[in-house]
Amino acid sequence: MGKPKKRTSPRKTGTRRSHIVLELARKVNSKSPVKVHTTIRETGKVKAA
Q1: Cα angle vertex 30, ends 16, 45, to 5°?
Q2: pTM of the prediction?
Q3: Cα–Cα–Cα angle for 43, 13, 8, nearest 5°?
Q4: Dihedral sign, Cα of residue 42, residue 22, residue 11, residue 4
Q5: Continuous H helices in the chain
């Protein structure tokens, strides 16, 4: 999945766009049969036994 570009000036509110990526991923997951990884809590990390 393509990621939105970060703003060029560092250390400001709104420079990290991970929240936008998460929104898009959740929209995709609601409709598409191919699921996208969102967060570890949502997606579920498989632990090796």
Answers
A1: 65
A2: 0.53
A3: 95
A4: positive
A5: 18-31, 40-43
d(CA 48, CA 45): 10
Name residues whose C-beta falls within 8 Å of residue 9's C-beta, 6 or more positions apart in sequence.
15
pLDDT in tens, 1-49: 677 666 666 666 666 677 788 888 888 888 989 888 888 888 877 766 6
List C-alpha distances in Å: 39 to 2, 5, 7, 9, 18. 17, 20, 23, 26, 11
Q: How many residues does the chain have?
A: 49
